[in-house]
GST-like protein (Novosphingobium sediminicola), 261 residues
Amino acid sequence: MLVLYHGEPNGPSLSVLAMLAECGLEGQIETRPINLLAGERHTIPGIAEPLARDIGVEGEGPLLVVDGEACQESVFLAQYLDEVAGAGLQPKDAYTHWQMMMWCRRITERCAPAAAFLGNQAYAAPVLAAMDDAAFDAIIAPIASADLHQRWADTRSGAFPDAARTDSRAKIADAAALVETQLADGREWLIGPLTIADFETYGWLVGMVDLMPDTFAEKSLTRAWMARMAARPSVQSALARAGVTHPERVWAPGPEINRWG
């Protein structure tokens, strides 16, 4: 049995849930919502190797459990879903497929850590800071990865250096500019046809609009693309799973800020 554990439809959980619907796999793969900021990802039963679950660079992202194996990372999960369904959301042409994967790598390595930094500073840190020590310790006790354990502690303590905040805002602005430039030739989707890159990029950027409104206000092509993404039935299906009014404001400790800039 395949079970997809996911957080609120934001960030990587949004991209994977939308891909699930886009691939026509709703009802074929069981889905179970979990509260990522309550540490529920680390108490999922039947995981054969907890460390493998926790060392993913994505941090608190969705998990697809297959025969006790915790499969993770939203781009890889999207590929898995596409290949199971034969949905055609990965280009067949080798060069275009390379373009899609390089685009996704840029989003996951530069945009995603920046979005997680800003989202956690704005929304997650106050929630964790309000907890008493015993409650917080109970949440992080099952985390097998020392790096991820530290990211939780840093989030709670408010370890958000000004330099990292400035850098994160710059990287979000760079991602929005990248989208704007890519769409300048009149294409509807980022790689040409609709691909995994659209879902991955939208998942990480949509929560940044409220935090950096001026960045998106001047990007008319990016806003139009985001509107097209929001209107897709698959994205609407993902958002319908939300348990809160504003899922784009729900964050949990995410990717580590890149050490190499």
Remarks:
- Residues 1-261 form a domain with the Glutathione S-transferase Yfyf (Class Pi); Chain A, domain 2 fold (CATH 1.20.1050.130).
- Residues 94-129 form the longest helix (36 residues).
- The longest strand covers residues 2-6.
